[in-house]
């Protein structure tokens, strides 16, 4: 059996002013044929799960084309037309197919298609016809429509945030689609979308309330006839009609069973809607707490958590007298690079300088500063402004004085468990700048999320030695930094990914939608669905 795999993976922040142009995909990941296997065969990403299934179930997985870029603004019409046009041409020309496996994100928006993932699935279905099984594996931050469910045979969502089970869930999709192609099962799906979103600061699946909702999905999966269940947290920075939480159940030729399982999960989440939207500390409060909590560097060999499988990342485990040692990690919510932010927010840095906080480590995307440091060379003393240059949403540039300690090409490889399951990274030209007020700033030539400590190690920075680490993200940096942290504190900063969703002007979202408005949810009707 020949099964095709292809995908356009993008988390679109419609409030970002940085468009997702074709070249942005070329810069990060635009792979064809064997390049896909070479890049993802030994990773923990979704496609690795597809490849694993092909080896163990003995079908031929044919990699066509895969495109991915970091979370930024809306995909341009040119980019979508070029990417989808080439991929769909491959699908059309290289068939026939026994099935199709899609590796998308689930929160993609293009200039022409607000629900790009559903449009991509529609085009694939048009090519292969109504009877060929089509499976799709999505990120937990998906905004999923009923259209997407109707156009696929099986829609499987990752169950952990940070995303550590990406390969496992990809394998589940492949198993479901393979069985369907052989006629062993007849998957039918139901999606339930109560009018509620979960704030980005409450999406960590290692603690309540999300931990309990993932547990509910696992429980619902044990019902008779249920093949799989998913809970999607949604992506609140995409202004689309389907924005918000969704719950999917797949049953074997029993739509009523799928409907009841999905509704049961949705009702359980609806009852937690207040807890899913609790605020987090301000910058001043977080920095004050960090100063109070810090004791000293973590002893060599002591870690709080080393994830060994695809299970949800747990909160730090007490380690007797050493559990309080290590850096205080501040999650910069408003500059969540994994959510489409600028990667150059200076709000925390500026406040730390004002408060006299010492020993801080952070990264800033600043090609201009990188170029100046490269020209000056290693050892040069620099006085210049860094950060705050992408737009007017992420603070003003901050004047710093420091020494260029190292320069690298920014390429690094991460073999530890990591959010998303990726392995190879490029941050562009990188500079280690040690400032005169005892901070270290990693200046990057490309936007690069803080999801891997190798980002720092590769240029000679040891995060374990710092008092405070600013991680630009909400959940994605946890696999990298929670093992060395004494405490992880979420910080309510301004920016294009701020937790204060009221600062955004939405034009397409559902109304009412909690917590923006009070709402009701009737699981016995379709009132909770995104197209009503």
Radius of gyration over C-alpha positions, nearest whole angstrom: 23 Å
CATH architectural grouping of the largest domain:
3-Layer(aba) Sandwich
Spatially, the strands of the biggest sheet line up as: 12-13-16-17-11-18-10-19
Please indicate the count of domains.
2
Please give the share of residues in helix: 25-40%
What's the count of strands? 19
| Sheet/helix structural class | alpha/beta
- Assign the CATH superfamily of the largest domain: Response regulator
What composes the largest sheet?
Answer: 8 strands, mixed
Morphology = globular
**Number of helical segments with 4 or more residues:** 14
Query: What fraction strand?
Result: 15-25%
Looking at the structure, the CATH topology of the largest domain is Rossmann fold
> Mean pLDDT across all residues, rounded?
92
Q: Unreliable runs, pLDDT <50, ≥5 residues?
A: 301-323, 526-532
Oligomer: single chain
Termini separation comes to 40 Å
Highest CATH level, the class of the largest domain: Alpha Beta
